[in-house]
From TrEMBL:
Residues 2-228 form the Terpene synthase metal-binding domain. Transmembrane segments: none annotated. This is Terpene synthase metal-binding domain-containing protein. Keywords: Lyase, Magnesium, Metal-binding. Pfam families: Terpene_synth_C. Its cofactor is Mg(2+). GO terms for molecular function: magnesium ion binding; terpene synthase activity. GO terms for biological process: diterpenoid biosynthetic process. InterPro entries: Isoprenoid_synthase_dom_sf, Terpene_synthase-like, Terpene_synthase_metal-bd.
């Protein structure tokens, strides 16, 4: 796009490492794709688009017709339309229910919240803390990510929970927590570009306070909301969501904790690279100390079985997209001699 943050790998990494829900690659793919699109669109509203361009894009989303759009706005709308159409088609095929309008409504309220914040910034309007949070918990777009993906879990999200007026408390808690976590790490950047932030609003309402006081104030609210969220996820009877849906909400909290707990890692180009390399690209290093005499003296046949199983673990199966490379040498001692093995290195490739 020529502007903004390129966070494709971050988004894939975040959802892949934050949830242990099995057999839900489709849900994780929806999360990753939605997060990538949100990042690009949010940056367009924050730093690139004129107010007139943003109004046209928002109107296109409201009526779900991109014919009047152009430039970056048209590219974003077309990508959004393709994503929603794809998700709705997969859901229709899987559960024989059309959720197109519900998905459009969720994205629409997100785009409207981005436009509202941009209009505040360009006009110099200062909202109250409550007014800001009502818009900010939507503009952070966690519900835009979690709810559509939850439709593909088993059991899936109840259909009525996709409607903005009927969000469960656990969904609203994830929305507000994500906003607060983001705000305590991004207040400096947003102050520089003239945007509002809950930490900055606290300072405006309390001129005698310092930024540390403001951060402490936000963290106190965060602590209370996190406890509430854990109760809604882990205790029965507090909401109507199936457990997999609640656990996906919890995964969303984990991701924002990772991105914004101690610094703004999401905006950094390097802070997560080492973790991403370890999780996806770098193979496990199998190291051994000197083996006990009882193991060293085992018959050759038994050792051969162990080595055979070790190699089978890394054997290529099916048509999955893997790249085989050489693995560091593994040296093991047997009967006082050194025996060297080379195991294949497997790098996962996104295709």
């Amino acid at each position: 796009m020529g502007f903004g943050r390129e966070k494709t790998t971050y988004c894939y990494f975040a959802v892949a490492t934050s949830t242990s829900l099995s057999h839900n690659s489709l849900a994780r793919m929806i999360v990753a794709k939605s997060a990538i699109l949100i990042t690009v669109a949010d940056d367009f509203y924050d730093m690139e688009g004129s107010l007139n361009e943003l109004q046209r894009l928002t109107e296109a989303v409201q009526i779900w017709d991109g014919k009047g759009s152009s430039g970056h706005g048209k590219i974003i709308f077309d990508a959004l339309d393709n994503l929603v159409t794809d998700i709705a088609a997969k859901h229709r095929h899987q559960q024989d229910r059309d959720i197109t309008k519900d998905l459009q409504d969720i994205w629409c309220e997100t785009f409207v919240s981005w436009l509202t914040e941009t209009a505040w910034s360009k006009s110099g309007y200062v909202p109250s803390k409550l007014e800001y949070l009502e818009t900010g918990m939507t503009s952070i777009a966690t519900h835009t990510i979690v709810l559509p993906a939850s439709c593909f879990l088993s059991p899936s999200l109840p259909h009525d929970k996709l409607k903005p007026a009927q969000y469960e408390t656990v969904t609203k808690l994830v929305m507000i927590i994500a906003r607060l976590l983001n705000d305590i790490q991004s207040y400096q950047k947003e102050q520089d570009v003239g945007k509002m932030n809950i930490a900055l609003l606290y300072l405006k309402e309390n001129p005698q306070a310092c930024i540390e006081d403001s951060i402490d104030y936000v963290k106190e609210i965060l602590g209370e909301k996190k406890k509430e969220l854990l109760e809604h996820v882990l205790m029965d009877g507090l909401n109507d969501l199936p457990k997999p849906c609640k656990f996906l909400h919890l995964s969303c909290l984990k991701v924002f904790q990772m991105f914004f707990n101690s610094s703004n890692v999401f905006d950094s180009k390097t802070d997560l690279l080492q973790d991403i390399m370890k999780a996806i690209y770098v193979p496990l290093q199998y190291q051994t100390s000197k083996l006990p005499t009882t193991i060293q003296s085992r018959p050759k046949k038994e050792n051969s079985i162990i080595y055979s199983r070790f190699h089978q673990t890394f054997k290529h199966h099916g048509n999955r997209s893997f790249i085989r490379q050489r693995f560091p040498k593994i040296t093991m001692s047997r009967n006082g001699r050194e025996k060297v093995f080379i195991a294949p290195k497997i790098n996962l490739c996104f295709t």
